[in-house]
Write a structure and sequence with these properties.
80% helix, flat
Amino acid sequence: MPYILLVSRLLYYMIRMFDMTGGTRKSLSAWLCGDTTPRDRRNMRRLLWLMFAWAVSFAGGAQLVRRDMIPTGAFAWIAAAIPMVMAVFVLIAFGRFLRETDELNRRIQLQALALGFGGGWFAMAGYRVFELLGAPAIDMGGVVLVMTLLYAIGGVVGRIRYR
């Protein structure tokens, strides 16, 4: 559960980075992302807000079910289904962002996704051997956190590389 809170906090600060409030000071997003178009910033903000909503619905639903705060049956299934529906909206927004951005941003995102997916895959497979040796079983939230952090690192490295 703390993983989801960490990811939601990270997403909140990422949304704040892409805030277009203006001003004379160069924002972190302008330093990190260079000159992005208003369309890219709008699509990224939409994506980050949806990711934040997903994280909140996932954490909230998991806590409601875990602590028996909602009765079993239809309400519990609805609480479990809401994050899945939110995930569909996140995927649609990410696809739109990738379709409407330029080639360089697409390349950076592809490299970041490859690092996140590959790193998560090898973290799961590698840790399985440690589990066989007696290490405690890993929560899937830990794998999601590894994938998210590696994706973010891949994005930052790509931005710095192609700046």
